[in-house]
Design a protein that fits this description.
The protein is mostly beta strands and 171 residues long. It is built from 2 helices and 9 strands, in the order H-E-E-E-E-E-E-E-E-E-H. Strand 2 and strand 3 form a beta hairpin. The chain is globular and about 50 Å long.
Protein backbone atom coordinates (compact mmCIF):
# COMPACT_ATOMS: atom_id res chain seq x y z
CA UNK A 1 0.00 0.00 0.00
CA UNK A 2 2.95 2.27 -0.57
CA UNK A 3 3.92 2.49 3.12
CA UNK A 4 7.57 2.98 3.95
CA UNK A 5 9.09 -0.39 4.96
CA UNK A 6 11.11 1.26 7.74
CA UNK A 7 7.90 2.66 9.27
CA UNK A 8 6.28 -0.79 9.17
CA UNK A 9 9.34 -2.40 10.77
CA UNK A 10 9.44 0.24 13.53
CA UNK A 11 5.73 -0.24 14.27
CA UNK A 12 6.04 -4.03 14.35
CA UNK A 13 9.12 -3.82 16.59
CA UNK A 14 7.22 -1.58 19.00
CA UNK A 15 4.31 -4.01 19.11
CA UNK A 16 6.60 -7.02 19.59
CA UNK A 17 8.56 -5.44 22.44
CA UNK A 18 5.69 -3.79 24.35
CA UNK A 19 2.15 -4.78 25.19
CA UNK A 20 -0.76 -2.91 23.64
CA UNK A 21 -3.51 -2.26 26.16
CA UNK A 22 -7.12 -1.52 25.24
CA UNK A 23 -9.60 -0.14 27.76
CA UNK A 24 -12.93 -0.51 25.96
CA UNK A 25 -16.38 0.50 27.11
CA UNK A 26 -19.32 -0.51 24.93
CA UNK A 27 -22.87 0.37 25.93
CA UNK A 28 -26.16 0.36 24.02
CA UNK A 29 -25.40 3.94 22.91
CA UNK A 30 -21.63 4.56 23.10
CA UNK A 31 -18.24 3.10 22.25
CA UNK A 32 -15.15 4.38 24.05
CA UNK A 33 -11.60 3.11 23.70
CA UNK A 34 -8.34 4.11 25.33
CA UNK A 35 -5.48 2.40 23.51
CA UNK A 36 -2.04 2.39 25.11
CA UNK A 37 0.92 1.11 23.13
CA UNK A 38 4.55 1.92 22.55
CA UNK A 39 3.57 3.57 19.27
CA UNK A 40 0.26 5.30 20.13
CA UNK A 41 -1.85 6.63 22.96
CA UNK A 42 -5.34 7.05 21.54
CA UNK A 43 -8.66 8.09 23.02
CA UNK A 44 -11.82 7.79 20.95
CA UNK A 45 -15.43 8.35 22.04
CA UNK A 46 -18.23 7.58 19.59
CA UNK A 47 -22.01 7.54 19.80
CA UNK A 48 -23.19 4.37 18.03
CA UNK A 49 -24.77 5.09 14.66
CA UNK A 50 -23.56 8.74 14.52
CA UNK A 51 -20.61 9.83 12.39
CA UNK A 52 -17.91 11.82 14.18
CA UNK A 53 -15.77 14.20 12.11
CA UNK A 54 -12.50 15.22 13.79
CA UNK A 55 -9.80 17.64 12.70
CA UNK A 56 -6.48 15.88 13.26
CA UNK A 57 -3.18 17.60 14.02
CA UNK A 58 -1.53 18.90 10.85
CA UNK A 59 0.88 16.39 9.36
CA UNK A 60 4.06 17.74 7.68
CA UNK A 61 3.56 15.62 4.56
CA UNK A 62 -0.22 15.05 4.52
CA UNK A 63 -1.21 18.61 5.49
CA UNK A 64 -4.64 19.39 6.93
CA UNK A 65 -6.49 16.21 7.82
CA UNK A 66 -9.85 15.06 9.07
CA UNK A 67 -11.04 11.66 10.23
CA UNK A 68 -14.63 10.50 9.82
CA UNK A 69 -15.57 7.62 12.14
CA UNK A 70 -18.76 5.64 12.58
CA UNK A 71 -19.27 2.85 15.14
CA UNK A 72 -22.05 0.26 15.09
CA UNK A 73 -22.78 -2.70 17.33
CA UNK A 74 -25.44 -5.39 17.31
CA UNK A 75 -24.50 -6.98 20.65
CA UNK A 76 -22.34 -6.26 23.73
CA UNK A 77 -19.48 -8.44 22.47
CA UNK A 78 -19.05 -6.91 19.02
CA UNK A 79 -18.30 -3.48 17.55
CA UNK A 80 -17.42 -2.29 14.05
CA UNK A 81 -15.73 1.09 13.51
CA UNK A 82 -15.48 2.46 9.97
CA UNK A 83 -13.12 5.40 9.47
CA UNK A 84 -11.89 7.45 6.54
CA UNK A 85 -8.81 9.65 6.80
CA UNK A 86 -6.19 11.32 4.66
CA UNK A 87 -2.69 9.88 4.91
CA UNK A 88 0.63 10.77 3.33
CA UNK A 89 -0.21 8.33 0.51
CA UNK A 90 -3.83 9.37 -0.09
CA UNK A 91 -7.13 8.49 1.52
CA UNK A 92 -7.53 5.34 3.61
CA UNK A 93 -10.73 3.51 4.52
CA UNK A 94 -10.25 1.61 7.77
CA UNK A 95 -12.60 -1.07 9.09
CA UNK A 96 -11.89 -2.16 12.66
CA UNK A 97 -14.00 -5.07 13.93
CA UNK A 98 -13.60 -6.13 17.56
CA UNK A 99 -15.31 -9.28 18.83
CA UNK A 100 -15.16 -10.64 22.37
CA UNK A 101 -15.02 -14.44 22.47
CA UNK A 102 -14.73 -17.07 25.18
CA UNK A 103 -12.02 -19.70 24.82
CA UNK A 104 -11.05 -22.67 26.95
CA UNK A 105 -7.51 -23.02 28.28
CA UNK A 106 -6.32 -26.43 27.02
CA UNK A 107 -4.14 -26.94 30.10
CA UNK A 108 -6.61 -26.00 32.83
CA UNK A 109 -9.96 -26.38 31.07
CA UNK A 110 -10.95 -22.96 32.42
CA UNK A 111 -12.67 -20.38 30.25
CA UNK A 112 -11.05 -17.02 29.46
CA UNK A 113 -11.91 -14.01 27.31
CA UNK A 114 -10.16 -13.12 24.05
CA UNK A 115 -10.77 -9.98 22.01
CA UNK A 116 -10.28 -10.63 18.31
CA UNK A 117 -9.54 -7.54 16.22
CA UNK A 118 -9.75 -7.64 12.43
CA UNK A 119 -8.32 -4.45 10.96
CA UNK A 120 -8.69 -3.81 7.22
CA UNK A 121 -7.16 -0.78 5.49
CA UNK A 122 -8.06 0.05 1.89
CA UNK A 123 -6.37 2.74 -0.22
CA UNK A 124 -9.07 4.67 -2.07
CA UNK A 125 -6.55 5.65 -4.78
CA UNK A 126 -5.27 2.16 -5.60
CA UNK A 127 -8.02 -0.02 -4.09
CA UNK A 128 -5.24 -2.14 -2.55
CA UNK A 129 -6.00 -3.51 0.90
CA UNK A 130 -4.34 -5.12 3.87
CA UNK A 131 -6.04 -7.07 6.66
CA UNK A 132 -4.47 -7.82 10.03
CA UNK A 133 -6.00 -10.01 12.73
CA UNK A 134 -4.86 -9.56 16.32
CA UNK A 135 -5.77 -11.38 19.52
CA UNK A 136 -5.87 -9.67 22.92
CA UNK A 137 -6.24 -11.29 26.34
CA UNK A 138 -7.33 -9.64 29.60
CA UNK A 139 -4.66 -7.64 31.41
CA UNK A 140 -4.13 -7.38 35.13
CA UNK A 141 -1.32 -5.64 36.91
CA UNK A 142 0.40 -2.29 36.86
CA UNK A 143 0.73 -0.35 33.62
CA UNK A 144 4.28 0.80 32.98
CA UNK A 145 3.60 4.39 31.82
CA UNK A 146 7.15 4.94 30.59
CA UNK A 147 6.73 2.09 28.10
CA UNK A 148 3.81 3.82 26.36
CA UNK A 149 3.95 6.54 23.74
CA UNK A 150 2.28 8.93 26.22
CA UNK A 151 4.92 8.18 28.82
CA UNK A 152 7.65 8.80 26.28
CA UNK A 153 6.07 12.12 25.25
CA UNK A 154 5.77 13.23 28.87
CA UNK A 155 9.43 12.29 29.37
CA UNK A 156 10.31 14.62 26.46
CA UNK A 157 8.11 17.42 27.83
CA UNK A 158 5.52 17.33 25.02
CA UNK A 159 1.94 18.37 25.75
CA UNK A 160 -1.54 16.94 25.24
CA UNK A 161 -2.56 17.05 21.56
CA UNK A 162 -6.23 17.69 22.40
CA UNK A 163 -9.34 16.10 20.87
CA UNK A 164 -8.46 13.68 18.13
CA UNK A 165 -4.82 13.78 19.17
CA UNK A 166 -2.96 10.72 20.25
CA UNK A 167 -2.64 11.54 23.92
CA UNK A 168 -4.65 9.97 26.69
CA UNK A 169 -6.19 11.74 29.64
CA UNK A 170 -4.59 10.73 32.90
CA UNK A 171 -6.97 9.93 35.72
Amino acid sequence: MNVDELAIEAHEKGEAEHDTLHDIQLTEMNYRIHKLSRVNDLKLDLTLGEELVEVLPRHPAAGERTRRSLANSDNPGHVRIDSVLKTVNGTARVTDVKTLTRETDPKTGLPFSVMVQTLTIVSEETNRSNTTTRFFVPFSGEIQVASTAGGSRRDRGQQDLGPGGNEMDET
